Amino acid sequence: MEKREALYAGKAKSVYTTDDPDRLILEFRDDTSAFDGQKVEQLERKGMVNNRFNAFIMDRLKESGIPTHFESLLSDTESVVKRLDMLPVECVVRNYSAGSLCRRLGVEEGLALEPPTFELFLKNDAQHDPMINESLAETFGWATPEQLQLARELTFRVNDVLKKLFLDGGILLVDYKLEFGVFNGEVTLGDEFSPDGCRLWDSTSREKLDKDRFRQGLGGVIEAYEEVGRRIGISFD
Ligand code: C5P
Question: Is residue 98 part of a domain?
Fold first, then answer.
């Protein structure tokens, strides 16, 4: 697989074309950002840790029959993925209250949410990723009702697989964000799953083991990501 030109650079990952028109290379960088890119730092080893974390999770999801773009690890910080036509929406499931849900509704952090909630946001930095719904997505052509229905079903199937995987390691999957695209007509999980895009708490102490450590200046960010990884069976050596 030959790396060609840079296609896109996001806040923490870069995407490259390859000699195969249906495959891209995702590079996980050490850059870490929060609050719409207002807080940015380089955290040593983050690219490597998130690349391996994502590969492990995507493999578990694939084993459970969830279509994902992930193909293989290419290097410490790079993976080969299928080239999707991305839907410009973010799908968020919450098992416990935290983050923007608490701010928006004025509820306390840590409430068990039964059933888990599902929210849609528009990927639009200039508008700060506003919350949307299926009606707005259909009217503005961001995704069809059928695509959104599939994305929602897949997002909840991911919850069933990952809630158990993390709980077996003594960790609560509090919430997470997924992005989907279309490959050969099939709605397929894209982007990444790492502690950058989810909340993970120790199930006993409720210590935060995810990007909230960076957002809240708690320190030990990558150490926490590695701790989660070790507890669910990922090796970072
Ligand atoms: O900020 P909020 O509480 O809505 O985030 C819900 C979940 O989605 C969190 O795990 C957060 O890390 C993730 N998220 C993300 N990227 C965004 C927005 C939210 O990874 N742009």
Answer: yes
Question: Which atom, in ligand 1's list, is nearest to the CA of 119?
Answer: 4
Query: Same domain for 154 and 204?
Result: yes
Residue 211, phi-psi category: left (phi > 0), alpha (psi -120 to 50), beta (remainder):
alpha
Interval between CA 3 and ligand 1 midpoint (Å): 30
Does 37 lie in the same domain as 12? yes
Three-state SS for 195? coil
Q: Does the structure show a pLDDT above 90 at 216? A: yes
Q: Is residue 234 assigned to a domain? A: no
In order, the DSSP letters of 131-148 are EE-HHHHHHTTSS-HHHH
Which ipTM was obtained for this model? Answer: 0.98
Candidate from 86, 90, 92, 225 with most ligand 1 atoms within 8 A of CB, to mutate: 92
Residues 34/215, Cβ–Cβ less than 8 Å: yes
Residues 216 and 128 in one domain: yes
Asked if residue 1 has pLDDT above 90, the reply is no
